[in-house]
Amino acid sequence: MVGGSPLVVAGVGGFKGGQANTLRFLGRRARLQLNGVLPPGTYRLALSNLTDEAGNHLAEASTALVVTKSADTVAPTVVSVRSTATQLFVTYSESVFLDATNAAKPAAYTSTNGALNASLTAMSVVRAGSPAREAYYGGAFFGRASYDGTGVTFNYSQPLPAAPGYSLQISNTDTPVTDLANALNPTPTTATFSTVPDTIAPTSTSVVETLRGPGFANTLDSGDVLQVTFSEPMWVPGNASIRVTDADCGTPTPSGPATCGGGLTNTV
């Protein structure tokens, strides 16, 4: 019982030939859509009027359904906001795939900056889910979150001019962003970003050995872990490389290894 009323199954879904079907499913699993949220506890799940595809009836049975998940008391937060001249990228601290309200609605994003607000008005959400995935989840799937479920990408309604200090407000009274139980913290959340092209090259600010493997104490061996800190967020492509050179010829400087002499060579 939920709220004094029996909990009912709204549908049984699954893939059949790559398409969603509320009456049949492939394999031995069924996804049940309930009409309410079950609080923690033990319930009786009764199975009846089920057949296989040949028409053979399942013997009526019941099983104990134990719901142990505790109530969600952690409010979502905004982790990052990025923007290009044509797109807005917002990342949250938890999944907004199925468990959030209004995260994919443009009305939840406003600005006091005229140019940004004009681009936000009537912006559209970029689809990031496959049609089959959207069909599987049906109406519960807004189909426009990132693949890990924590981010939303929008196409601006008009190009955003390059500027160093845009301010964006996320969530408002009319269109609040929430998870299943908690409002975005804080509401509204204010984020700033720049669309000025980045012309400053990054630098490495420190290199620290965070874990020593089973090798010798004064050598770099298999199993050693190095942590490199950069001056700004980095993108690491597949062909990126890190070259390590020893200090046989002297202490290295930011410009490179020390110059060798006397028959010595650096080991790379």
CA radius of gyration: 27 Å
Order of adjacent strands in the largest pleated sheet: 7-8-11-10
As an assembly, this protein is single chain
Query: Any low-confidence stretches, pLDDT <50, length ≥5?
Result: 1-6, 9-23, 137-144
Percentage of residues assigned to helices: under 10%
Give an overview of the whole structure.
By secondary structure, the protein is mostly beta strands. Among the domains are: 9-67, no CATH class; 78-193, Immunoglobulin-like (Sandwich), CATH 2.60.40.1220. It has helices at 114-120, 131-137; strands spanning 9-13, 15-16, 19-20, 31-34, 41-47, 61-67, 78-83, 87-92, 109-110, 124-125, 151-155, 166-170, 189-193, 204-211, 225-230. The strands form six sheets. It has a four-stranded antiparallel sheet with strand order 7-8-11-10, with no helix packed on it. A three-stranded antiparallel sheet has the order 9-12-13, covered by helices on one side. The longest helix is centred in the middle third of the chain and has 7 residues, at 114-120. The radius of gyration is 27 Å and the shape is flat.
Question: How is the secondary structure organized here?
Answer:
Layout (H helix, E strand, L loop, with lengths): L8 E5 L1 E2 L2 E2 L10 E4 L6 E7 L13 E7 L10 E6 L3 E6 L16 E2 L3 H7 L3 E2 L5 H7 L13 E5 L10 E5 L18 E5 L10 E8 L13 E6 L38
Antiparallel strand pairs: 1-4, 2-3, 5-6, 7-8, 8-11, 9-12, 10-11, 12-13, 14-15
Summarize the structure.
With 268 residues, this protein is mostly beta strands. 5% of the residues lie in helices and 27% in strands. Residues 1-6, 9-23 and 137-144 have low confidence and may be disordered.
